[in-house]
Specification:
Elements: H1 2-14, H2 19-28, H3 33-65, H4 70-73, E1 81-86, H5 91-104, E2 109-113, H6 117-125, E3 131-134, H7 140-148, E4 153-162, E5 164-167, E6 175-177, H8 178-186, E7 203-207, H9 212-220, E8 232-234, H10 237-246, E9 250-254, E10 264-265, E11 267-269, E12 274-275, H11 279-283, E13 290-298, H12 303-313, H13 315-324
Parallel strand pairs: 1-2, 1-3, 6-11, 7-8, 7-9
Antiparallel strand pairs: 3-13, 4-13, 5-9, 5-10, 11-12
Helix pairs in contact: 1-2, 2-3, 5-13, 6-7, 12-13
Length: 331
């Protein structure tokens, strides 16, 4: 009987569970009709039990394949990851702050990208980021757009900066009045000899329109004038430094932290005497293009956004501001 059942099991498998075919083959090997019918009854029962077992396994497998619920996947509490996007001026500072913060807080992630103040502010308005970094204040139109989408922009000042006008180190010009600088960038002055330099065409370099520095320079220096149409725009501040360092007739403007020995900073006179951009002149506000740098959030910072913002404003965070090359907030 045991051997016959083994044969039957094999034939069941071989015939794809077709019991009528199983009966035919068993009769061929000499099994009696009574025995075949008995085995057939038992086999139906066995196949039914096996089916139920696999159904149970299948149900369990489906649940496991669905993965853990959101409650199991993420511990209760705030997110351990935030996104920061915006100002190219703030970018090196935000990167340095995020790196140190994550070193001290294992498992917490701060993703930092640039693109310009306008890009970061737009991302905040669209709910795409936790923090927008900016080298200018939001405009009234931006604030209205944010409020229309249910976003409440809150500004936090994180450091001070000075828009620094640079030329090639070989250029003999060392200072400008605001009128001279305005003339160069609105197109009314095009030759270096008009401002005390050599007889050479001025190559004017500017940031692109998404930049907060672009907007601040237009407001404070051009006083609302349009930029000259032949100005060469750069999508990043580093590009301006590179261009000016390689072109003896170029002029550009950058955030103070980007200033290095490959270019020369100009002193500026807005009517109260010429002032060189230094940490001290920016801190005390005597440098005429001093400004603040900001984080914008939707409402008051909370959770990980608050932890990171508090870190940037802390003594350690402000020491990083100095290390990067910007000016820490006054105590």
């Amino acid at each position: 009987m045991k051997r016959i059942f083994i044969y039957f099991s094999f034939i069941v498998h071989y015939t794809g569970n077709d019991l009528d075919k199983c009966k035919f083959y068993l009769l061929l090997i000499g099994v009696s009709v009574h025995m075949v019918n008995t085995l057939k009854k038992y086999t139906v029962l066995i196949l039914l039990m096996i089916g139920l077992v696999f159904l149970g396994i299948g149900c369990t497998g489906t649940k496991n394949n669905e993965g853990p619920s959101s409650a199991e996947e993420t511990p209760a509490g705030e997110s351990q990851s935030i996104l920061l996007k915006g100002s190219d001026t703030v970018l090196p500072l935000a990167q340095a702050e995020a790196e140190e913060f994550m070193n001290e807080n294992t498992g917490k992630s701060i993703t930092v990208t640039g693109g310009g103040s306008g890009v970061g502010i737009s991302a905040l308005i669209d709910g795409e980021v936790n923090i927008a970094s900016a080298s200018r204040e939001m405009t009234e139109d931006e604030i209205k757009s944010a409020e229309a989408k249910g976003i409440n922009p809150v500004k936090t000042t994180i450091a001070s900066d000075g828009i620094t006008v640079i030329v090639n180190p070989s250029n003999p010009v060392s200072n400008f009045t605001f009128d001279q600088l305005r003339g160069i960038y609105n197109g009314s002055i095009s030759n270096w000899k008009e401002v005390g330099g050599t007889d050479a065409q001025i190559s004017v370099i500017s940031r692109d329109s998404s930049s907060g520095t672009y907007k601040d320079f237009q407001k404070d220096v051009l006083q609302g004038d349009e930029y000259r149409p032949d100005a060469l725009t750069q999508p990043a501040t580093g590009g301006i430094v590179t261009e000016v360092s390689q072109n003896t007739n170029a002029i550009g403007y950058i955030g103070f932290a980007y200033l290095d020995s490959s270019v020369k900073a100009l002193s500026l006179d807005k009517g109260n005497g010429s002032v060189t951009p230094t940490a001290e002149s920016i801190r005390n506000g005597s440098y005429p293009l001093s400004r603040s740098l900001y984080f914008y959030t939707n409402g008051e910072p909370s959770g990980l956004t608050k932890e990171f913002t508090d870190f940037v404003l802390s003594e350690k965070g402000q020491s990083i501001v100095s290390t990067v090359g910007y000016i820490p907030l006054k105590k």
